TrEMBL record:
Pfam families for this protein: Metallophos, SbcD_C
GO molecular function: 3'-5' exonuclease activity; endonuclease activity
PANTHER family noted in UniProt: COMPONENT OF ATP-DEPENDENT DSDNA EXONUCLEASE, NUCLEASE SBCCD SUBUNIT D
Subunit record text: Heterodimer of SbcC and SbcD.
Keywords of the record: DNA recombination, DNA replication, Endonuclease, Exonuclease, Hydrolase, Nuclease
Protein name per the record: Nuclease SbcCD subunit D
Transmembrane region(s): none
Functional summary from the UniProt entry: SbcCD cleaves DNA hairpin structures. These structures can inhibit DNA replication and are intermediates in certain DNA recombination reactions. The complex acts as a 3'->5' double strand exonuclease that can open hairpins. It also has a 5' single-strand endonuclease activity.
The family this protein is said to belong to: Belongs to the SbcD family.
Organism (species): Streptomyces luteoverticillatus (Streptoverticillium luteoverticillatus)
InterPro entries in alphabetical order: Calcineurin-like_PHP, DNA_Repair-Maintenance_Comp, Metallo-depent_PP-like, Mre11_N, SbcD, SbcD_C
GO biological process, any: DNA replication
Length: 388
């Protein structure tokens, strides 16, 4: 059976104020063309269909158009909700839509109920695991712990229990929206850390033949059987070096997996350039970036006059301008942003406590309070997204 694995469409998202709807529509055209030309048997969409719980009307219209086009191909589609989606909203009409071959899986209680498709070798069971916010689904799934690993284990226990009752030779595919240990992140993924731990081990998915992951925006293989498709478009300059693709996966009759990356259309290449303004304006080595979307980091000791206006004369699609003056690290004017780069919310909060106390950081009890406060904010946001 030939599968097309994609995820993280983020319909409705912009890129530094640039409307990406046309680029997302071009991706849908490419998706439909790929399904037809490569004789795909099933399309897998591993979450974050939309960019936010209440998407703009234009994004909803594009999604509706996409569902119609996939249904017209008579190729089944299995789709789960991600942490950006509202499961309740995305799942509206799922029972009716299923009649057209579009299988929306947004209910955690249905983790162990597969979509059954068949080829010449027998059945393939597709299990959709929507994004599982631990605090919201722990009790429903009977998880042994409070973290992501615990709820994923509980969901996969349901998957394996169902699979054990099916005929020998039934192949199994899982769709999940989660951060798996070993994955490479980018700046455009929303933090799903709760209790300080977000990553789950790949071994959670043992016992199935292929796991189609969503959440991380870079295409990557955690193992031969556990893969992220990545987002079809770049949503931050941290993705400048990404190759945006989908996975074309062949699942043989004995469960053997082979996979090939298929490139997605690129609206404009991304580039990060860095240096003093006059150097950037004169460097012939940057000619290749003149038609791309640009993030320029200026290192001039003093802010130049009208830097954006001057940059856009050479690089008309400059979208982001960052100032990081060349100064000694001990200089009090050194960039605050550079000191925060790569640090978690918890680390920043703890550093602030140490700063206002003259160097004395939080003790264990205070650290626990900070962790609980940060988790509460994330959980409130997650709860809003599951409420219609």
């Amino acid at each position: 059976m030939r599968l097309l694995h994609t995820s993280d469409w983020h319909l409705g998202r912009s890129f530094h104020r640039v409307n990406l709807l046309d680029a997302q529509r071009a991706f849908v055209d490419h998706l439909v063309r790929t399904v037809r030309e490569h004789h795909v048997d099933a399309v897998l969409v591993a979450g974050d269909v939309y960019d936010r719980a209440v998407p703009p009307l234009a994004a909803v219209e594009l999604f509706d158009e996409t569902l119609h086009r996939l249904a017209e191909l008579a190729v089944p589609t299995v789709m789960i909700s991600g942490n950006h989606d509202s499961p309740r909203r995305l799942g509206v009409g799922a029972g009716l839509i299923e009649r057209a071959g579009i299988h929306l899986r947004t209910d955690p209680d249905a983790c162990g109920t597969p979509v059954l498709l068949a080829d010449d070798h027998g059945d393939v069971a597709f299990y959709g695991l929507p994004y599982l916010e631990p605090a919201l689904v722990r009790e429903r799934l009977g998880a042994a712990g409070a973290g992501h690993t615990a709820v994923l284990r509980a969901a996969m226990d349901r998957v394996r229990a169902d699979l054990a009752g099916r005929p020998d030779g039934t192949r199994a595919v899982v769709l999940a929206h989660v951060f798996v240990a070993g994955g490479t992140t980018s700046d455009s993924e929303r933090d799903i850390t709760v209790g300080g731990v977000a990553a789950v081990p790949a071994e959670v998915f043992d016992g199935v033949h292929y796991t189609a992951l969503g959440h991380l925006h870079g295409s990557q293989a955690i193992t031969d059987r556990v893969r992220y498709s990545g987002s079809p478009l770049a949503y931050s300059f941290s993705e400048a070096n990404h190759r945006k693709t989908m996975w074309l996966v062949d699942l043989d009759g004995d469960g053997t997996v082979t996979a090939e990356r298929l490139d997605c259309p690129v609206p404009r290449p991304l580039a990060r350039i860095r240096g003093r303004l006059e150097e950037l304006l004169a460097d012939p080595g940057l000619d290749r970036h003149e038609d791309g979307w640009i993030e320029a980091t200026l290192t001039d000791p003093e802010r130049p006059h009208e830097p954006m206006a001057r940059l856009t004369r050479r690089f008309p699609h400059t979208l982001s301008l960052v100032f990081e003056p060349d100064r000694a690290p001990e200089d009090p004017l050194a960039s605050y942003a550079s000191r925060l780069r790569g640090r978690t919310d918890q680390q920043i909060a703890e550093d602030f406590v140490a700063h206002v106390r003259g160097g004395a950081g939080p003790d264990e009890a205070e650290r626990a309070v900070l962790t609980a406060a940060l988790d509460s904010v994330r959980l409130d946001e997650a709860a809003r997204e599951v409420t219609p």
